[in-house]
Amino acid sequence: MPKRIVFFFIGFVILASLAFYGFNRWKDSREKVDLWALVPEDAALVLETNNHQALMEHLRETELWQSFSLLSFAQRFEEDMAYLDSISPGNERLTRFLDEKEILTSLHVAGKTEVAFVFYVPVASVGEHRFLRTLTENINKSDVFEEESREYQGVLLTDITNKRNGRSFTYFTYHNNIILSHSPVLVEEIVRRIGRGKPTSIIAGFKSTNYLNQPEVYANVFVNYRVLPDLLGLFLKEDVMPQVRYLATVCQNAMLELKLERDKIFINGFSTPEPLKNTLHSKLVPKKPQPLGVKAYLPNRTAILLHFGAQQLAQLRQPQPENKSAYATTVDSLAQTFSQEVALAYLESNSVSQRPDKITLAHTSSPAQTQRLLSILSQQIATAKQQKPFSEKYGSYTIQLLNVPELPQQLFGKVFKGFEQSYVVQVDDYLLISEEMAPLRHLLDDISDENVWSKSAAQKTFLEETLQEANFSLYFNTVNAWYMLNRYTTDEERENLLQNASLIKRYSQVSLQFSVVENRYYTSLVIRRPDQSKTAGQNIFEGESNLTFDHRLDTRPFAVQNAVDRSREVVVQDSANILINITAAGKRGWVDTVGTALRSDVKQVEYGPDKKLAYLFATANRIHAINNQGQSLENFPFNVPDSLSLQHLAVFDYEKDGDYRLLVDDNMGNLYMYNMQGAAVQGWQPRRMDYRLAAEPQHLRVGGRDVILVLLENGYVYALNRNGDTYPGFPINLKSPLTSGAMAKVGADLKRTQVTAVTRYGNVITFNLQGKVLNQEQLMRPSKRALFELVPEGSNGRSFIIVRQEQGKVAVFDQDLKEVFEKRYVTSASKIVQSFHFGGDAKVYTITETGPQKTYLYDASGNLIGNRTFENRHPVTIYYNETANNYTLYRVFKNQLKKINFRIGE
Q1: Measured between alpha carbons, how far is 192 from 159 in angstroms, rounded to an integer?
Q2: Long-range contacts, stretch 765-774, CB < 8 angstroms, 24+ apart
Q3: Is the CA virtual torsion 348, 353, 354, 360 positive or negative?
Q4: Residue 708 and residue 726: Cα distance in Å, rounded?
Q5: What is the dihedral of CA 590, 592, 598, 600, to 10 degrees?
Q6: Is the pLDDT of residue 538 over 60?
Q7: Residue 230 host element (H or E)
Q8: pLDDT tens digits, one per residue of 67-99
Q9: What percent of the chain has pLDDT over 70?
Q10: For 209-239, how does the pLDDT look when each residue is reduced to its tens digit (9 = 90+)?
């Protein structure tokens, strides 16, 4: 009897133990797991969603998924999902299984060249467990997949390989959750994290934050700013990474909400400031966000803008290295005059090889005091270097040279590093600083012409959707920054960049802003596709109108502005040698009976005390200037000897003060220069050249010197001063004929100014203004009949294309000598090739066949616009309306001036 009792007791203990063990296993499996606690701390981004199907449907409705699905990683993901979906049991497809689950997706930097994702998926019901078990069995049976299991630190890991594409993934289950990744290393890291017991959640500081219960929010987005530079470092060259790493130190991490609207992505929420020392946050010491007042001085060609808002900007420069220079105290005092905002603008470049221009813009609380300190600093620098202070008048502004290395960095901190010297100009309450003078001149022109953010309809619409006040903002225009992206993207990733060009350029307006609110930063990321018209995706011509004249029109429509309201007009000359103005409304304006054919373009200058626009042009032996009534200005026309035959007219304004010089050349290569009173300028009566000019003379302003660049048809290049004297090192012989002008990149001095010319036979030569050839590259010449020319883009003289013509074929090359497109035409006669570049991808190429009298229009990629041609045999004129996002084409045919509006679809 006692033995039986002992036997039953032992059995009871065993059964109780088994029951207790089973209960604990069941309890453990039912335990709610905080998936955020499983995410490794090195995650750069984590996305939490709870309605997978709704998110996908919205992405498709807004065309965002169509765009993102072009990305290679998205295509791989969809392919893998399709394979798994094909063996899913019954009607319980993966999409239904994933729907309405709180799924985490973490993104990690895996090695030096790759990113990896981890997916954390709850399994909520018995039916879902059954689905997964059946799916696993089907994987085992499938001839597509190969499955292998292994144990790692007491956890069973399963590796599944797709035998058709070679890709694999690893997963394990944990408390009714599946953790899955293509990276077995990351899966093993999560297992180790679990093994350490109760790991700390990476969102411990955001425990009470959950945007998913708010309407129209599709995801929570966690951002780890400490890892973000490593992620960006996969794509960017090391040249720019020090600045990226420093800018990322404004915050430690963030929890943001994701909202989607048509053609827009909004990611908003709060970021935790970075508590470490010597970070951007510690330098900003933000108290009050500041508005973007500098928008009135930012050109529309801005590619990237870094904007800092703080009441005292001097704190950005701390700590400063010890400065024992004679002007250190003045620099310190100057730094104290700036307040509210300072910005660093990177401007659009026109080639991958070109280093982008950048300009610092800082608000001054006391313009008079700032100017006084600038004058003192200029004098101190000149005394220390035993040089005269340098300044230059440019219109109503004065540009000063402050030859201090890294002056912006000394004033505003290390973000503003990279200025070997500084040219400065004060405009209203802002000081503008550039490393070279030419970008400042261009910027002053943009401000004068109102080509700035505050006047741009597209930019104003974008800015209305961003924060109106912030402490740190990054604005990014992917179209304007395209060549910069190519320049600073790693060689390994450049191919991906080019493959995804359409997506990147489509969502061209990006802003990331931080605005301090109660010791945290309210954070806003806006990714926006500019407004598209109803005709987007189509090339449409509309609103064609004709204006008929009594005589045949013999010139192109010259682009001019109305002398009163600056509206866009054109001027043409007919076969009776009458010059006729056509207003923006399509009506005839003033007329001028010139009596002979034009030899030059029609140019416009602001002239006289009222600075009204006047028109200048040349005929065979006269220089004409007329007002907006078609009446000759005082002293005009200028008569040159009847024996001369003028070829070009160039107009220079050395000091930008309205004191113009008129330079003409004849068919013998003689140069004549006059002032606006008709007096001949000494040294130019004539300045004899050895051969005829290949193009109109060009004026360059380089470090206070005036350079007149003259290219001759025989391949010789001259650089002349105001008096017609030749600069040392010139002439240089390019050893091949020239048929077009050159393009200059003006630097701080003659040595650093680079000029590019293209010979008739395709030799691209770059030289400086000391006469030294810096580079030569021969473009491919398929046959001896292939001829080349350099064609300026637009009228600003900042970019160019190279055109090759050969037996009816025309090829266009960009400034990096990469072929944009090649087309074949009916005849072998020479074509008229033009390029109109209005910034970014707003570009139109025109090619005119003079034999068949047909003009073809092409977009930035070389696609024929509208699948049609136009009757024409002269160069055309094209205007661009940024507000309406459309173009206006003017052309002449027989006795008609034809005007047509058109749009360019994507």
Answers
A1: 17
A2: 765/734, 767/717, 767/732, 769/700, 769/702, 769/707, 769/719, 769/727, 769/729, 770/727, 770/728, 770/729, 771/719, 771/727, 771/728, 771/729, 771/730, 771/732, 772/729, 773/732
A3: positive
A4: 9
A5: -50
A6: no
A7: helix 228-233
A8: 566 556 666 666 666 666 666 666 556 566 666
A9: 90
A10: 889 888 888 899 999 999 999 999 988 989 8
The C-alpha atoms of residue 22 and residue 16 are separated, in whole angstroms, by: 10
The DSSP symbol for 239 reads G
Which residue in 193, 194, 162 sits closest to 175, CA to CA? Answer: 194
Q: In the structure encoding, which two tokens stand for residue 453, read together? A: 């953010």
Report how far residue 864's alpha carbon sits from residue 823's, in angstroms, rounded to the nearest whole number.
10
> Domain-by-domain residue ranges, the chain?
1-31, 35-202, 223-371+408-528
* Contact indicator for 579, 573 with CB cutoff of 8 Å: yes
Distance between CA atoms of residues 735 and 585, nearest Å: 49
DSSP state of 321: P
Whether the pLDDT of residue 5 is over 70: the answer is no
Q: Check pLDDT > 60 for residue 25.
A: no
Cβ density class 318-344: b for 16+ within 10 Å, e for less: eeeeeeeeebeebbbebbbbbbbbbbb
State which H helix or E strand residue 543 sits in.
strand 540-548
Q: Is the pLDDT of residue 6 over 50?
A: no
Q: What is the pLDDT of residue 539?
A: 57
pTM, full prediction: 0.88
Residue type for 666, please? Answer: D
pLDDT recorded at residue 785 = 93
Could you tell me the two tokens for 717?
């290049």
The secondary structure of 756-806 as a DSSP string is EEE-TTSEEEEEETTS-EEEEEEPP-SSTT-EEEEEEBSSSSS-EEEEEEE
Report the distance separating Cα 309 and Cα 813, nearest Å: 42
Nearest residue to 181 (alpha-carbon basis) of 234, 227, 114, 93:
114
CB 131 within 8 A of CB 95: no
Separation of alpha carbons 44 and 40, rounded Å: 10
Q: Which of 151-165, 242-256, 375-389 has the highest mean pLDDT?
A: 242-256
* 8 Å CB contact between 605 and 616: yes
Q: Which helix (H) or strand (E) holds 612?
A: strand 612-618
Distances (CA, A) of 202 to 120, 390, 473: 15, 56, 26
pLDDT score of 69: 60
Q: Which stretches within 390-545 are classed as H helix? A: 407-412, 437-448, 457-464, 482-488, 491-499, 501-506
Which residues neighbour 458 within 8 Å (Cβ) at sequence distance 6 or greater? 530, 531, 882, 883, 885
The percentage of residues in the chain with a pLDDT greater than 90, rounded to a whole number, is 58
Question: Six-digit token pair at 50?
Answer: 């709870």
| Full DSSP string of 47-72 | EEES-HHHHHHHHHHTTHHHHHTTSH
